Amino acid sequence: MMILENKKILIFGSNSAIPYSIAEKLKINGANIIFVSNEYTENAGIPQNIKNEIIHFNYQVIENISELFNEHLIKFSPFDGLVFAGGIGGVRPIKLNQPNFVMDMFSANVFSFMEIVRQASKKGFLKDGSSIVALSSVSSIKGLKSKSAYSASKAALEGAVRSFAAELAVRKIRVNVIQKGWVSSDMNLDFIKDNVQLSEEDDFKKQVLGAIEPDEIADLVSFLLGDNVKRITGTSILIDGGYTL
Amino acid sequence: MKGDQLLFQNKTILITGASSDIGLSLIEHLSAEGAKLILHTSNKQSEEKLRHLLSNIPDIVYFNCDFSKPHILEDVYLSSGLENIALDGFVNCVGVRSRRPINLIKPEHSIEVMQTNFVSFIEMIRIITKKNRFNSPLNIVTISSISSVTGGQGITIYSASKAAVDAALRCLSKELAPKGIRINSVVCGQINSKAYHEMMDSKTEQHDPILERQFLGLIEPEKVSSMVMFLLSEQSAYITGSMIPVDGGYLS
Question: Which of A6, A5, A2, A76 is nearest to A36 (CA)?
Fold first, then answer.
């Protein structure tokens, strides 16, 4: 039997490689998926085999998340799992790190996740015994120049996860985080290409096993969603190619 | 002690959230060591109280600003006559508590706590690290909490805000090192404070499970301020980007 057979998983993602790879992998492992994408694209880049499961809804507008659940997701519920893979990145030195930039980063990476969990934990959405997985980064535990807002947002996300795990344990709902290092698809992102410090590869060299493929992250997500895991909660699991060694 | 032996003689130190228990303890010890103080409070009322309480200490500069509004901080800072003062130290004691179950953590609440505990702190650093607003070496210390590294029921957003600060300081320590700026946090356990006793008085259950793990007991504010003063001094010249626990054994 496939590890996610008969499970219905809700995925929050964007038009990028990691969330698509997660969606495809969960399907291969037998799950039914609902993929909420915060970006509308004319099918560009969307893998054919998950095209029909995608709902376009901008969940980074936080006050609309209750509408998303109560009007759109209610007909698919209840869910056995939830994956949050919808954050954003960004690099700015302190001089340019104005409150607006910091707050936008937090809206996308923290507040939207907290509101999604708040809505999903209401009656009828997440089953007892379900599993929540959020994507974070080694940036939450390692500092890098000009990434203070991003690092802080990921650490905040993980801080929230530890408390959610303590609180949702009565319903046997598990909440965990994956801390990823450099992923091959990151290397094409504009903010990294444009940043001399990062593109000089100094930082990338610390990742002794090389770039991670999106597919490998998807495997770890599947594992955390599966029934083989019953007692892992409130924790951050590293997949960093040795970056933090 | 003689004047020339004072630890912070002629040093200008900014304390935000100065009317907190830790802030008050810092004021007492820093001024005794010769520091010139700039004290921030969240509103006019607390400022007046503080002015009254500290009327015997000369040359204190006061300013007040609501930290839940980071966008106005720079204007307030400059209009309070601080533009031409160069800082040697900055201690951030601002921190609002938040205790709510998940169904009550609405985005407005999360945003307010995060603006107060995190965004305004980052904004203060942005403001004070501009040219002519600090002397090198500048030492920055912020008060963090064991909640930054552990989880507890109902303190989701508070934990998240403290973890955010600690992550940002790891980045900023690297970014600001070339300017001679160090930045660290003190990770506090449960403090023996007014707020703590008020909270316990409101409960019927008088046993506090935190104290089982924090086996050295409640922490006196003085023990936190002495660690802060160590981090503000050149004795700690090689410590930066670090979280130093004063936790009564909690994290052990």
Answer: A76
- CATH for B201: 3.40.50.720
Which domain does B60 fall in, by range?
3-244
Confidence check: pLDDT of A200 > 90? no
ipTM of the prediction: 0.74
Cβ–Cβ < 8 Å for B224, B143 = yes
Residue A55 at interface with chain B, using a CB cutoff of 8 Å: no
Mean pLDDT, chain B, rounded, equals 94
Contact A114 B107 (CB under 8 A): yes
Alpha-helix runs per DSSP H in B33-131: 44-53, 73-77, 107-114, 120-128
The tokens of A243 are what? 């970056």
Put simply, the chain B residues between 78 and 137 with a CB less than 8 A from any chain A CB are 101-103, 105-107, 110-111, 114-115, 118-120, 122-123, 125-126, 129-130
The verdict on residue B250 lying in a domain is no
SS3 A126: strand
Could you tell me the domains of chain A? 8-239 (3.40.50.720)
Cα gap B23→A105, rounded to integer Å? 30
Is B158 annotated as catalytic?
yes
How many domains in chain B? 1
Best probe of the A interface among B109, B158, B159, B179, by most A CBs < 10 A, is: B159
